[in-house]
Specification:
Cathepsin B, Chain A; 2 domains; 6-stranded antiparallel beta sheet; 3-stranded antiparallel beta sheet; 11 helices; Butirosin biosynthesis protein H N-terminal domain-containing protein
């Protein structure tokens, strides 16, 4: 998801990054809320809640409140120290004080994760990157503006600063974890580590293929209620999920034999997901209600076919037994 764009863009420069990606980002989930309470039908990767915990080159997560207590008004100093020691820093900053956020600058307070990757000591500014008005781009912010943007972040809701080193971590393709995750995805099982985190949550959470089924079921109700029944991020994620699966199959093919017909069927599934995503874009441009029916039909087909393909894949040479 976009909130991890900073960390993922840094990690993607590492040689074994793909092994880490293909070992993760399998399970998805959807929090099922009443139609009147939920504005978006948003599917997310299970890894969103703790993606950084699996990254070896993450050095620390430090509470923003701790930064404020340690450094008082001079919050620029620890970020300068990070950069001087080849450490990227990602922190929530209030867009109200950042000129590049034109829709929010001097208008609306909105904490947003921002990458701090450089600074100029003579002109006293930081180099930052973020989604400035929907586009990922780069900019500058003075030390004074940075201090205001940092101090304005409410620590009870946006608690942490993330530090990422540049050193090369050695990731490997975790076959056992991949098989476990694919099985949980197909059977719509809540992962054990996620069950612990969500034990006291009141919302029903759908996992795996059931997350997609929930979207299929709710879209018509959202449409009938006059609500925005389409969140393009969910359909983009579903497409990316199928795209990642084909990269994952290349890794699996080096360990177990996967026949060419099955590989081709997974490629065809990715193409259908892309067509569904493009249909959603068409709906956003034309607002033709009949396209929602087309999207629902395509997603239903994708779920049914993927379920069958995963059964064929996981039963290859008894691979499911390894889970």
């Amino acid at each position: 998801m976009p909130e991890h764009a900073h960390a993922l863009s840094i990690l993607s420069t590492q040689r074994s990054y793909e092994n880490w990606v293909y070992s993760n980002f399998i399970q998805i989930f959807f929090e099922q809320k009443p139609v009147v309470d939920n504005d978006k039908l948003l599917i997310r990767f299970r890894d969103d809640g703790y993606v950084h915990k699996t990254v070896l080159s993450i050095t620390d997560e430090i509470l923003i409140s701790t930064f404020k207590r340690w450094f008082g008004e001079d919050v620029a100093k620890p970020f300068i120290d990070c950069i001087d020691n080849d450490i990227y820093a990602i922190s929530f900053l209030d867009s109200f004080y950042i000129p590049q956020h034109k829709s929010f600058y001097n208008h609306i307070h909105r904490p947003h994760p921002t990458l701090i990757y450089g600074y100029c000591p003579t002109e006293k500014y930081f180099l930052i990157a973020d989604f400035f008005d929907d586009y990922y781009s780069f900019g500058k912010i003075s030390f004074d503006q940075f201090q205001l943007a940092f101090q304005a972040v409410p620590t009870e809701h946006y608690p942490k600063v993330l530090q990422i080193t540049k050193f090369e971590a050695d990731y490997y393709f975790d076959l056992q974890y991949v098989i476990k995750s694919l099985t949980e995805y197909q059977l719509s099982i809540c992962p054990q580590e996620q069950a612990i985190l969500r034990r006291n949550r009141q919302l029903h959470v759908a996992y795996g293929l059931d997350a997609c089924r929930a979207i299929i079921e709710l879209m018509p109700y959202y449409q009938a209620a006059g609500k925005d029944c389409l969140d393009i991020r969910s359909l983009q994620l579903i497409y990316e999920h199928k795209k990642l699966m084909n990269g994952r199959l290349q890794r699996l093919g080096k360990i177990v034999t996967i026949n060419s017909e099955l590989k081709q069927d997974f490629l065809n599934l990715e193409r259908k997901a892309l067509f569904m995503r493009n249909t959603a874009l068409k709906y956003m441009l034309t607002n033709k209600p009949q396209l929602i029916g087309t999207i629902v039909g395509l997603l239903s087909m994708i779920v049914e076919e993927e379920n069958e393909l995963l059964s064929r894949l996981l039963d290859v040479r008894g691979i499911r037994i390894l889970a």
